[in-house]
Design brief:
By secondary structure, the protein is mostly helical. Helix content is 75%, strand content 0%. The longest helix is centred in the C-terminal third of the chain and has 32 residues. The chain is flat.
Length: 243
Amino acid sequence: MRVWLAPVIWVVLLCALTAFLPAMTWLFSWAQPDAENLIYSRDSFAVLLQSHIWLVLISATIGTLAAVSAGILVTRPQGRDFMPLVSQIASIGQTVPPVAVLALAVPAMGFGEKPTLLALVLYGLLPILRNTLAGLGGINPAVLESAKGMGMSPVQVLLKVEFPLAGRVILAGIRTSVTINIATAAIGSTIGARTLGDPVIAGLVNGNTAYVLQGAILIGILALATDSLFEAVEQAWGRAFRG
């Protein structure tokens, strides 16, 4: 149970700050002593946090399904020829800056959440795909042969042998992707998506450092909470499927 202590602490801190940040004028008075409005109030921090989490969650789900499926495909005998193509597509997704993806997607998809989701999905594919390939490719072939010798079908081998053994490595890729996208999602505020980047953008536009700090603090703690949660899940997975 000790492994879950850190995620719980970070989540409690995140919820507490989200609820009580509007009452912490004293905390930001030093950052912007001459400002009339020290606390961002266009939207509540709870609404921004919820919207931010949903954007990251939806994009992570789509990206994970796509990357893991592609990783499974190219590690099967009939799909190995597609490995270079799949790897190049995923690499392009992370090579192109999210801002460029947003700029290209807005004319076709409009402002708001849709182009932001597209940018997050593309940007998050590569870490998951790489770890899926590393996890599935790192399994001892003798183990797979033993499973087949026991009469397991290819699907049973995948679900009962490959996933349990490679799961921790795949989770590490998802962890990296999600953590990166928590910060990247803030860029969506520049095209009308509702995220924790709203106070950051508003602070930069209006020269209000207090706004910037409020958004940055919540984004940072959300990233730390998520990272520690994934770490706990990875450790639990490792204990469950040890050996």
